[in-house]
Amino acid sequence: MQCKKGVLEVKIKMADNREREELHKAIWSIADDLRGSVDGWDFKQYILGIMFYRYISENMTNYINEGERKAGDDNFDYAKLSDEEAETIRKEMVNEKGFFILPSELFANVCKKAKDDENLNETLEKIFNNIENSAKGAESEEDFAGLFDDIDVNSNKLGATVAKRNDKLVKILDGIANIPLGNYKDNSIDAFGDAYEFLMSMYASNAGKSGGEFYTPQEVSELLTRLATVGKTSVNKVYDPACGSGSLLLKSAKILGKDNVRNGFYGQEINLTTYNLCRINMFLHDIDYDKFDIACEDTLVSPQHWDDEPFEVIVSNPPYSIKWAGDDNAVLINDPRYSPAGVLAPKSKADFAFIMHSLAWLATNGTASIVCFPGILYRGGAEQKIRKYLIDNNFVDCIIQLPDNLFFGTSIATCIMVLKKSKKDNSTLFIDATKECVKVTNNNKLTDENIENVVKIFTDRKDIDYVSRLVSNKEIGENDYNLSVSTYVEKEDTRAKIDIDVLNKEIDEIVARENVLREEIKKIIGEIEE
User: Out of 27-36, 51-60, 266-275, 396-405, which region has the weakest mean confidence (pLDDT)?
Assistant: First the structure.
């Protein structure tokens, strides 16, 4: 039985790799067509935005077709209806799906006419506006507002003339149409997330243009989310205070099942472009508009989900050591999220501000899993005082040292801090997971086996030589609240061991042979002289 399971897993992995290779090949082909004309970072927005346009077109068409075919009309095809006929179901569609697209404005129908449309840029601009406007006045209005803002079909970056811009738009539309996406719900890979990661890796050198945006690789997302959901089969809500494109929120949907996140997915993102991508990503993963709430604001000074906390699962990879208002803002020290520690995170390093925010909004029975910059685990000053607060109140469940080179755009070795409010012991688990990876080109990568190993060590909560150690909070206090894994988990000495007695014997033998040789040489020289 185990053998059959192993064969099945290999087949699934092979299918995943084929889907991924086809996706990457298609994206690369579009990039090749547009090489030199569209900056890589801007290119990312066009690809992802038009992938989204294709998705919602197909999503709505399939939804309507399935309903009509179940009702007995086997040949029904929404894409072939006239706009006038389709108008009769506009209200129903907006209520159920949150948006509406006329048949003439569906991705497939626009693609058919794109080459012959001299005003393609205007056509697309009108369609994108119509999709956003279809949600106006409905519950889904906020979820659709500004979704297409980053796809500037009139940008000079596409070409100096309308004809040249339209030529590029045709190539993008055709390229997206040829991507083998199938039914998004049936895909064995996260097609949109994978496309995003591939684009990030293609243009990693441009990362600075995105305001320090570092995409969380899917494997790291998997580990973070697995840690936060250990022992849980359903939760009230999932939250990410620095949600980026939403990969961590969506991992929770995948691991728990979206229906087992009863009250939905919540996130906040300060970057407008990434905020739009996150909302797009929610729709692409069939998360209904009423099951997610993504806000665009600065989480640390203007949190948008006061009425929604506490959260049973919090997963996050906040930006490392960014500047924030800190004690320049006199109000923040009285903010209930930060005041319990009696001190604010340094103005030049907001890491602990994100951690305190997450802890404040964590449910009593919840778990927060957060990627951290290693410096916050041992630096002095305000950060040491916050660590003291966390340890003295028994909120830190585990610290995990990850391998370096896991993230696009940075080679630093990161850590994971796991927080809980209801722990069973007065100790903190430290795990050295620096060897849990494989080398892939210039980056390290977590395999399924690596993830399983770390989760098992985390769950078992036992001492393992050179790998993990359960340390009493009293001992941590005696170490000035240093939370570095290397302080508590000894590194294995891989140097060759030397037996001194054996070495001395070998030296004696060498010296003895040397003396014999000297005597023989002396004898030979004497004979020559005679």
Answer: 27-36
Burial class of residue 80, CB neighbours in 10 A (0-12, 13-18, 19+): exposed
Three-class SS state of 407: strand
Q: Say which amino acid occupies 445.
A: K
What confidence category does residue 189 fall into, taking pLDDT thresholds of 50, 70 and 90?
Answer: very low
Determine the distance from the C-alpha atom of residue 446 to the mean position of all C-alpha atoms in its chain, rounded to a whole number: 13
Q: How many CA atoms lie within 13 A of 272 on its CB side?
A: 7
Residue 228 vs residue 503, higher pLDDT: 228
CA distance 431 to 123: 55
In this predicted structure, which of 78-87, 117-126, 150-159 has the lowest mean pLDDT?
150-159
For 436-522, where are the E strands, in sequence order?
438-440, 443-445, 468-472
- Give per-residue pLDDT as tens, 123-135: 999 999 999 999 9
Q: Which helix (H) or strand (E) holds 315?
A: strand 311-316
Give the separation between CA 175 and CA 169, rounded to whole angstroms. Answer: 10
Question: In the chain, what percentage of residues exceed pLDDT 70?
Answer: 87
Burial 89-106, CB ≥16 within 10 A → b, else e: eeeebbeebbbbbbbebb
Q: What local confidence, expressed as pLDDT, does residue 441 receive? A: 75
Burial of 156 (0-12, 13-18, 19+ CB in 10 A): exposed
**pLDDT bracket for residue 51 (50, 70, 90):** confident
Q: Which residue has the tokens 């049936």?
A: 186
- Residue 262 vs residues 223, 253, 311, 312, 509: alpha-carbon distances, Å: 22, 11, 11, 11, 77
What distances in angstroms separate CA 197 from CA 40, 170, 202, 372, one per listed residue? 13, 24, 9, 21
Residue type, 112: K
Compute the distance between CA of residue 433 and CA of residue 281 in angstroms, rounded to an integer: 30
Whether residue 210 has pLDDT greater than 50: no
Rg (CA), the chain: 29
| Phi (first) and psi of residue 85, to 5 degrees | -65, -40
Measure Cα distances from 508 to 501, 515, 516, 522 in Å.
Answer: 11, 11, 12, 21
d(CA 234, CA 216): 24
